[in-house]
Amino acid sequence: MSKEVQIACPKCEWKPDGGEYWQCTCGHVWDTFKTAAKCPQCKKQWNYTQCIAWRGGCNQQSPHIDWYRNLDEILEEELTSVAETAPASGPKKQCA
């Protein structure tokens, strides 16, 4: 059974509710998790995401990728599934 990706602050475990709380330097406000931390207006890619204190979070910043839970398990399941369904390969040919 596949796990689902969960999103939570790696420092305080606050879970975003889908609200548009993050503001880019260009002024655009959006839900950073809908775009993997890329501003939909100016296309700036953010590496860090701040936890939203006024919504119950800790106000600390963490690498954006660290907010996603179960990614390792999901990737392992996918790789196992691919390996199980891949056709058997014969001897590899050497390039000349």
Please tell me about this protein's structure:
The radius of gyration is 19 Å and the shape is elongated. Helix content is 16%, strand content 15%. It has one domain (8-81). The protein has a two-stranded antiparallel ribbon with strand order 1-6. A two-stranded antiparallel sheet has the order 2-3. The chain has a two-stranded antiparallel ribbon with strand order 4-5. The protein has 1 helix and 6 strands. With 96 residues, it is of the alpha+beta class.
Q: What is this structure's SSE topology?
A:
Layout: E1 6-7, E2 22-23, E3 29-30, E4 48-50, E5 61-63, E6 68-69, H1 71-85
Antiparallel strand pairs: 1-6, 2-3, 4-5
How would you briefly describe this protein structure?
The chain is an alpha+beta fold and 96 residues long.
Helical content, roughly?
10-25%
Q: Strand percentage, roughly? A: 5-15%
Biggest sheet architecture: 2 strands, antiparallel
Number of continuous helical runs: 1
DSSP strand tally = 6
Q: Which class best fits the helix and strand makeup?
A: alpha+beta
User: Residue ranges: pLDDT <50 for 5 or more in a row?
Assistant: none
Using only C-alpha atoms, the radius of gyration works out to 19 Å
Descriptive keywords:
alpha+beta; 96 residues; single chain; two-stranded antiparallel sheet
